[in-house]
Amino acid sequence: MKMFTDDRLKDYDQFITENRKKINKYLNIILACFTATGPVIALGVRTGIFEDISYGTCVGISAVVLIMSIIHYLLIKYYPDKEATSVFALAGLDLLLVFMTLNHVSIYLTWFLVPLLSLLFCDLSIFIFSSVFNYILMIAATWFYSGYVALKREDVVSGTAYFFNTAGGFTIETVIMFISGFAICRFSINYLRNLIENQMEIVNHEKNMKERLDILSSMAEIYDNVNLINFINSTEMSLRGGNLEEKGIDMSRQSHTLMNQRIRASVMPDQLDDFLKFTNITTVRKRLTNRKLITGDFIDVEKGWFRAQYITVDSTLDGIPNRVIYTTRNIDEEKRREEHLIRISLTDELTRLYNRRCYEEDMEVIRNQGLSSDLVIFSIDVNGLKKANDSLGHAAGDELIKGAADCLVSSIGSGGKAYRTGGDEFLAVVNTENPDKLLEVIRNKTREWHGMYLEEISMSVGYAAHSDYPEEGIDGLEKIADSKMYEDKNRYYAEKGIERRVH
Predict the structure, then answer these.
(1) 420-429 b/e (C-beta count within 10 Å ≥ 16 → b)
(2) Who's near 199: CB < 8 A, 6+ residues apart?
(3) Which fold has domain 349-502?
(4) Most buried residue, 71, 83, 219, 419, by CB count within 10 Å?
């Protein structure tokens, strides 16, 4: 707050400085105009108006004024905003009045003109100096002038009497003028200060509003749609484009804004109910209470995924939103990247099958939701992988693993999911009423397979169907399938006459 006040004072001081520069220029013009005082008085001497004034006095007045005008001009040139420059002009006018009075040119009203001119500076110190200095010179000039008046006027008893009488009047008038001028100066200063503060508040408010509008304009460029919803006067206004027109919202009959009525036409049919529920304008305020943001993701039939958001920009002390920004933004590319990353994290790099992590997550879902009656788990292990790696290299081993994955996927099709859970280990979770037939399909696929490095592939397979073991959970079925797979593997090695320990 102190910094804000200091800024206001700085603005006021700057105004006073600029004002002082302007008034100094005007005073210099006045001084320059006063050089014509000599010729004007000379004209009065010529016509007999001023009997006791010589032409030399007229020349002297113009010369004095001209010199003061030049000095003041130089002060303005080098010190345009200094108080001394202002004081010099006012003091010069007072000295000119003294010179004119001593030379018998007296215009009483002019004495009080100088302090009144000082009010233009809106500076109490300049006004006080001008009033005091003016009063001192006025009294001194009256003292010296009183003797001349006593000689010239028969109604004046003595110079001293004239002095006290005139000085008393001048004093009373000066006091009245000073009190009035002081009040006027204080009032002007306070009025100008408040005026400038109010002006600065208006300027700052306009600046803040412009910054907010610039921010909103920037936001409008980011989003496909930007709407300002005002719950106080029940209006909506699009912030896209130059036409910022408010349109009314009839909360008693209207459940969606005009924008959402337009958007709903392109929302995926199976997501329309969710979209209408999320964008229901009659419930937005309640859902946003004590929250800054609510978000929903939906699919546009033409443009793909988009995100709708309600953002609180103004709320009551109770957290109830008064004004809300509603935006929509296309996030189809973002969703694709997200899905790609998820897919990478859940798939095996070599075979493109689902990995162990995906299998564990799917098993957790099955544990929570329960097993379907036709669920079957297959456990598969590739035979001879070590031999292929040792004799033909890892390229051959990789070919064997990818061959096994291809056979498994092509056999299962859309009936389930296949996972690579280890080096040569696979699991498959399928829904089938005839697991024996699926097993035969897998056998046939392996017999048909041929690779670049290897002519054939062999896989040991075991399965466990929920219908055969209804008392078992998903983990129990996996153990049974593994057990049967190892039985199949033992038969394979026995038929081949291969020692299992070294292969």
Answers:
(1) bbeebbbbbb
(2) none
(3) Alpha-Beta Plaits (3.30.70)
(4) 419
